[in-house]
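[agent] plan:
  1. take the single chain provided in the ticket
  2. run structure prediction with default settings
  3. attach structure tokens to the ticket
  4. add a short note for the reviewer (M.T.)
[agent] executing step 1
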Amino acid sequence: MKRSVKRTIGLAFLNLFFISICLAGLIPILYAFLLSVSSGSGALTTGLSLLPEKFTLDNYRSILVEKPFLKWLFNSVLLSTGTMVLAMGTSVTASYAFSRFRFPGRTAVMQLLLLLNAFPQILSMFAIFRLFKLLNLLNSHAGLIFIYSGSMCIFSIWNMKGYFDSIPVEIEEASKIDGAGNLTLIAKIILPLARPAIIVTAVMVLIFVWNEYLFATTFMLREESYTLAGGLYQLQANDYSRSWPLFSAAAILVSVPILIIFFCIQKYMVSGLTAGGVKG
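[agent] step 2 finished; step 3 output follows
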């Protein structure tokens, strides 16, 4: 009885500790939101209260109406969607091939891809800039999509290969015995089983492109070509027109689409559709 009471008390304190950590992590987000609905241009006040003296939505109206926020949003959606489709279209088939087939040079290619992914992106920036200038791809969304797809394809292959390795081979063998061809096997058996990994990997690719700043501001030289990350920097580039409430409102708007996507796919992040697929 005493052990049960001690265990209950211990779990209660542990839950309170984790809840406190979560609440502490929400403080910066709450402060950014309160700052976005306040008037003025400063981020700090002399008082102890974090609440704004006057609530207003003028910062959100200014971002959506006076700034090219919707154009930046369109550019980010275009780059994120294009990169996700191109990277996933190539990495799904490649990761399945690396997982299931044993061909000469397989291990060497995987190690080479891992080595390429280990180099910082900034090391290749000058070479890519020269190449883009030669091919007239500066200020081009297509050029950025190719760069993003190449870098994220390596991550996607390694991420999904591990998931394909966890799918029992007996499922494929049973399907072949039932007369399923290779195309039917992949479309109706493998891809549905790998749906959690594919969705999570695709969203991680999308989030990377959504938040990417270095390449987007280097290869996009016009304001109308900026993504949301470049646009946020543009809002703070001028010391004389800097407004932290305006910047906070833009940051909140940038985060909303990603939060919606995350809440929609969170069930796939913990699901394992292959569990119990083959009985021992």
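[agent] step 4 note for reviewer: Confidence is low (pLDDT under 50) at residues 272-280.
[agent] ticket updated
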